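Design a sequence for this backbone.
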C-alpha cells in the first residue's frame, strides 16, 4: 500500500512538472486529489486496514497529498506571475515618447500694438472711435480743408468707388464725423484706429493698405504745448522713459501750424546709425493744431475753441518697437513671423 502511494506521488510530481499551464494544473488536481482520484480511493479503503496499519498509512496518505498540493500551489503561483509579467511587458508605455504639442494662437502684432496704444490714450482720458473704410469725398477731403483740385490731394491718391465715394486715405475723416456728432460740445478727446488705403506701389515700407491711429482733442484753450506734452507722454510709455521727441515744421491742409514728429532712434539711442540714416531721429507721425476752417465747418467756433490732431502709422510704430524690417510681413500670414509674437 505504502509503495503504491509513493509511486503515485512520483507519477503525480512528474506529470505536474510537465504541466504547461493553469488549466492543465487544474486537471491534474482533479485527477489526483479529486473525489474520484486515487488518494480518495485509498482513504475510502482505510476501514479495511488493521488498527496498527491505519495510522501509518494515514500518515503516508497525508504526506503524499501535501507534497502534491505544495507543488500545485507553487506551480500555480509561478504561472500567475508569468502571466502578469507578459501582460506588463505587452502594456508597457514608453514615457520617453515626445508629447503632441498644443497649437497656441496669438494676437496679431498689429492688433497688439493698436491695443497698447489704445491703453495709453484711454489712460489719459480718451475714448476710442471708429469710422467707415469706404468714405465720402466730403469727409476724407472737403471738410478737412482739401477742396476739389487742391494739389495736396495728390499726396493721397486713392481708390475711388464712385466720384463721391472712395476708400479713405487716412483716419482724419473720423475727426470730422466725431465733431459733427458732438454738435459743438467739448471736450472732444478721441483716438481712432483703422485701415486706410492709398494707391501706392508696395515695397518694404509701403503698402496700398495700412493702419493708422488718429487723435483729436478740442476744448477751450488747447495749445501746441498740450500736443507736445501728450505725444511725449505717449512715446515714453510706448518706447521707454528715455525717449525724446522733436517737432519739425510741416504742412497739412487741416492743421495750422503743422508738425512732423520724430522720436529718438530706438536702435542707437540718438547717436546716429544706419536705421535713422545717421540723424538720431525717426519720424513717427504727422500732427498740428486743428485748422480754424476745419473747426468752423464742423460747427465749432474757432474764436472760442482750439484743438490738436495727430495721425500715426501703426505698422511703422510696430516695426520700430519689434525691429521688423518689412511691412509686408504683417499681411502675408507666415506662421514663422506670427509665432514670434505668441508671448509678446
Ligand atoms: N492724416 C495725415 C496723414 O495721413 C496725418 C495727420 C493727422 C496730420 C492729423 C495732422 C493731423 O498723413
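Sequence:
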Amino acid at each position: 500500500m505504502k509503495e503504491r502511494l509513493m509511486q503515485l506521488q512520483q507519477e503525480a510530481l512528474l506529470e505536474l512538472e510537465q504541466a504547461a499551464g493553469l488549466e492543465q494544473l487544474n486537471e491534474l488536481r482533479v485527477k489526483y486529489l479529486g473525489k474520484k482520484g486515487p488518494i480518495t480511493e485509498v482513504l475510502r479503503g482505510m476501514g479495511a486496514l488493521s488498527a496498527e496499519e491505519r495510522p501509518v498509512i494515514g500518515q503516508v496518505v497525508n504526506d503524499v497529498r501535501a507534497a502534491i498540493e505544495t507543488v500545485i500551489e507553487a506551480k500555480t503561483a509561478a504561472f500567475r506571475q508569468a502571466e502578469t509579467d507578459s501582460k506588463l511587458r505587452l502594456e508597457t508605455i514608453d514615457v520617453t515618447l515626445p508629447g503632441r504639442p498644443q497649437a497656441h494662437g496669438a494676437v496679431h502684432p498689429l492688433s497688439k500694438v493698436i491695443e497698447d496704444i489704445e491703453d495709453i490714450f484711454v489712460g489719459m482720458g480718451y475714448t476710442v472711435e471708429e469710422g467707415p473704410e469706404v468714405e465720402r469725398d466730403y469727409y476724407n477731403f472737403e471738410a478737412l480743408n482739401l477742396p476739389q483740385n487742391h494739389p495736396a490731394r495728390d499726396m493721397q491718391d486713392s481708390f475711388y468707388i464712385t466720384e463721391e465715394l472712395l476708400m479713405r486715405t487716412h483716419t482724419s475723416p473720423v475727426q470730422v464725423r466725431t465733431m459733427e456728432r458732438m454738435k459743438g460740445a467739448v471736450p472732444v478727446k478721441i483716438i481712432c484706429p483703422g485701415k486706410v488705403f492709398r494707391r501706392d506701389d508696395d515695397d518694404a515700407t509701403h503698402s496700398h493698405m495700412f493702419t493708422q491711429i488718429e487723435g483729436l482733442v478740442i476744448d477751450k484753450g488747447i495749445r501746441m504745448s498740450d500736443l507736445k506734452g501728450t505725444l511725449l507722454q505717449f512715446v515714453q510709455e510706448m518706447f521707454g522713459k528715455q525717449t525724446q521727441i522733436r517737432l519739425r515744421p510741416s504742412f497739412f491742409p487741416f492743421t495750422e501750424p503743422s508738425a512732423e514728429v520724430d522720436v529718438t532712434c530706438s536702435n542707437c539711442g540718438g547717436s546716429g546709425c544706419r536705421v535713422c540714416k545717421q540723424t538720431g531721429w525717426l519720424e513717427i507721425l504727422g500732427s498740428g493744431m486743428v485748422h480754424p476752417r476745419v473747426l468752423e465747418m464742423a460747427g465749432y467756433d474757432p474764436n472760442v475753441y482750439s484743438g490738436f490732431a495727430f495721425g500715426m502709422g501703426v505698422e511703422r510704430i510696430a516695426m520700430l518697437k519689434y525691429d521688423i524690417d518689412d511691412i509686408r510681413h504683417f499681411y502675408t500670414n507666415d506662421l514663422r513671423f506670427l509665432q514670434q509674437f505668441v508671448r509678446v
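The CA atoms of residues 120 and 234 lie 7 Å apart.
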